[in-house]
Design a protein that fits this description.
Elements (H helix, E strand, L loop, with lengths): L1 H16 L22 E7 L2 E3 L2 E5 L2 E7 L8 E2 L17 E3 L5 E3 L4 E6 L3 E6 L4 H4 L2 E7 L1
Parallel strand pairs: 1-4, 3-10
Antiparallel strand pairs: 1-2, 4-8, 5-9, 6-7, 9-10
Length: 142
């Protein structure tokens, strides 16, 4: 046991010499504020509808689609829209039973993209756009 006690001071010195500090470090004075997140607009995907289907945002705004419906959906730009975007399949929220007999809802899939260039961007759900007219537009202004 005595040999272990003698090793501790050596290990501490070794850790300090090898940069073992886990605290914050400073590299000098930085007067720049931390970057801020872009403004965000939300679109809910419910059973066969986008809510709000038509939105107007300023350039640099992020749009986030969240599936709150009972089935999978996509947010896919219409042909000819540039830049093109496609969320892929966004799963519906699922339910599981908790150990106490209640129901816990897990969040649905979501997708975000930032619109930097003014213009009008039409989009649809690839599963329900034709069948249920699940379409939307994003108008980006300066």
């Amino acid at each position: 046991m005595r040999s272990y006690v003698r090793l501790w001071p050596s290990l501490l010195a070794f850790g300090a010499a090898c940069g073992g500090s886990s605290g914050p470090t400073s590299t000098g004075t930085n007067n720049n504020p931390p970057p801020t997140a872009p403004p965000t607009a939300s679109v809910s995907m419910t059973d066969f509808a986008f809510t709000q289907a038509a939105i107007t945002i300023k350039a640099g705004t992020m749009v986030k689609w969240v599936n709150n419906g009972g089935t999978s959906h996509t947010a896919t730009s219409d042909g000819g829209v540039s830049p093109a975007f496609d969320s892929g399949t966004l799963a519906a929220p699922g339910t599981t039973t908790d150990p106490y007999g209640g129901t816990t809802t897990t969040p649905g899939g979501s997708y975000s993209t930032t619109f930097s260039t003014p213009g009008t961007y039409a989009y649809h759900c690839t599963f329900h756009g034709t069948l249920h007219n699940m379409t939307g537009t994003i108008t980006v202004t300066q």
